[in-house]
Amino acid sequence: MVECLTSVWARHGRLTSEVTYTESHRNMPRYGATDTGQALPRRCGRDCNLAAMEIREVAVVGLGTMGAGIAEVFARAGIGVVALEIDAAALNRGVGILDASLSRAVTKGRLTAAEQAQIRSRVRPAAGFSEAAAVDLAIEVVPERMEIKREIFAELDRVCSPDAILATNTSSLSVTAIAAESKYPGRVVGMHFFNPAPVMRLVEVVSTVLTTDGVAATVSDLARRLGKTPVQVSDRAGFIANALLLPYLNHALHLLATGYASRADIDLAATVGIGLPMGPLALLDLIGLDTALSIMEVMHGEFGLPRYMATPLLRRLADAGRTGRKAGRGIYDYGDSSASDNHDQGGNALVSAAPDTVTLIGAGDDVEAELASAMASAGINVTRNAAHPTDLIVIAAEAGRPVLPAALAAGRPEQAVGLHLAGKLAPGSLAEVVQTSLSSADAVEAGTALAAKLGLATVRAPDRPGFLAGTLLYAHLADAVRMCQDGYAGPTDVDTAMKLGCGYPRGPFELIDAAGAASVLTGLEAMHEAYGYPEFAPPPLLAEHAAAGIAFAASPRPGR
Ligand code: 3HC
User: Which of 34, 113, 473, 511 is 20 to 30 A from 459 (CA-CA)?
Assistant: First the structure.
């Protein structure tokens, strides 16, 4: 790849002679950091221009899925785009992605043909870096390999005006390391878009200790012009959204690899159970398993914690070239929708009818009453007497409490399953059919059929803390609290990032506040006790909110 880039640049000329830096530019001081790593207040000559500049034309280097999407976003906002790729074929492919996206918008009636032509006319496919000489900002959107990024920044350093801002769309690599090698490190920032770029509204604007004051504000203003919402952060692996999203996705893949739950159930638990727009496995395929792997590796290198260790299946799928949608195959198969590989919902396909008579065991609470009344309405005879011969024992399961003790107490554990409602009992809402190590296959089938008869979407989960949806969610929420506890980002920025970058209907802190910090704490404590993994240890900040009975939204000091 690097060789290719070099040869392309050699073919089109390195063009350093076309750029004339004045002596004062060359001698410009570098902006440094104090010994403590805090940014120095920056007074400057030339870099001050960066702060208030108007962005009229940009260069987008790399026109893959993300780059093409980003080029489209700029062009739609009336900004001229110089599009650069590794060679003419890649450039044609990239422009093809852009054209297809604009044509789709026309077909859907979101754009007129005239608007499409106008947007398209703003994008100028370029034969070489020299054509980026006059841009106000250049953004690099190339694969996550530092050596490629270095080459591109060196080239941009050579051709762009010293007044131009140089941005990287890196997901996780050190923006500081990229900046440090630039002639003008003060102008280098992260401008991190989310996939699909034309749709997701978040842009993370990443400053380093070298970034000149005002540059992040200029880039944030630009993001707003693009119709996006900027969140300003400092340079740390994964920034906000990826640092929270990727460990959660990796955890989901680990659950699949270890046979904890099926692929379809994991994705259903996240969408129907938690309300997320996509299941974690489908989202991994959208992001790309190779991209996900490199983000995990960078985060693991930076933080060194087990939570950031890529699960072996992620590495194997990436090694196998099953990188997701872009390859036609990842965790799912996109080439052939009828592929047997895509049909693992068979586990929950109903082969038996719902039982006529059920023994219901619960804590005498609202959930038990709700279940009893829903079963009765569905024409199922309900008894509370375990000794009464019934087809199935249903234990109204509670998060944080195992089902097995109640199943044993009922005397017929092989005929017992738990039924856990992830939310309110309503048509289409999620029921987790909890199988203990003694539940028979027939009981699990009958429990699934029963839940379906009640109009619920079902997943199967082992009798472990959090069952399925909770297992995924609690660890994810703990990561968010830890990020806030570390002082990296506050609850509002975290919630904004996850809502606008990943389409969450509610941010992690809004989810905690809705469930109650105490209930999330109980779930995490149970997981931590069962597994002993440090990543399930409840963060002190969560315990403090639970003890104080205070919502994050209402906290006078939400992070420390
Ligand atoms: N490109 C362009 N537009 C797209 C698109 C794509 N790939 N996919 C969907 N859209 C558009 C559709 O055309 C539609 O637009 P319209 O309303 O104007 O017709 C709109 O998005 C909604 O699409 P659909 O109705 O087809 O589908 P959904 O309602 O299911 O939404 C989704 C699709 C927006 C992708 C939604 O599922 C979602 O928000 N998913 C989460 C995505 C996410 O988490 N992204 C972040 C990944 S992490 C990342 O990118 C960081 C990186 O560093 C790894």
Answer: 511
Q: How far is 548 from 526, CA to CA, in rounded Å?
A: 20
Could you state, in order of their start, the residue ranges of all structural domains in the chain?
5-234, 238-346+469-560, 357-462
Q: Would you say the CB of residue 170 lies under 6 angstroms from ligand 1?
A: no
Candidates 3.40.50.720, 3.40.920.10, 3.30.70.270, 3.60.15.10; correct CATH number of 357-462?
3.40.50.720
Q: Ligand 1 centroid vs 541 CA: distance in angstroms?
A: 33
| Atom number in ligand 1 closest to CA 291 | 54
β-pairing verdict for 202-207 and 188-192: antiparallel
Of the candidate CATH numbers 3.40.50.720, 3.30.70.20, 3.40.50.150, 3.40.30.10, the domain formed by 5-234 belongs to: 3.40.50.720
The DSSP annotation for 301-363 comes to: HHH--GGGSPPHHHHHHHHTT--BGGGTBSSSBSS-TT-GGG-GGGGGS--SPPPSEEEEE--
What residues pair up with 165 in beta bridges, in sequence order?
137
Which amino acid does the sequence have at 291? Answer: T
pLDDT digits (tens, 9 = 90+) for 197-227: 999 999 999 999 999 999 999 999 999 999 9
Q: Nearest C-alpha to atom 32 of ligand 1 is from which residue?
A: 277
Q: What pLDDT is attached to residue 387?
A: 85
Taking the alpha carbons of 515, 519, 520, 521 in that order, is the dihedral positive or negative?
positive
Question: Residue 32 pLDDT > 50, yes or no?
Answer: no
Q: Is the domain defined by 238-346+469-560 classed in CATH 1.25.40.890? A: no
What's the CA-to-centroid distance between 199 and ligand 1, angstroms?
Answer: 6
CA distance 278 to 263: 13
Catalytic residue among 57, 85, 169, 171: 171
Among 85-89, 143-147, 442-446, 505-509, the minimum mean pLDDT is found in 143-147
Tens of pLDDT, residue by residue over 261-298, are 999 999 999 999 999 999 999 999 999 999 999 999 99
Distance 271 CA to ligand 1 centre (A): 14
Please indicate whether the domains covering 5-234 and 357-462 agree at the CATH topology level. Answer: yes
* Amino acid residing at 423: G
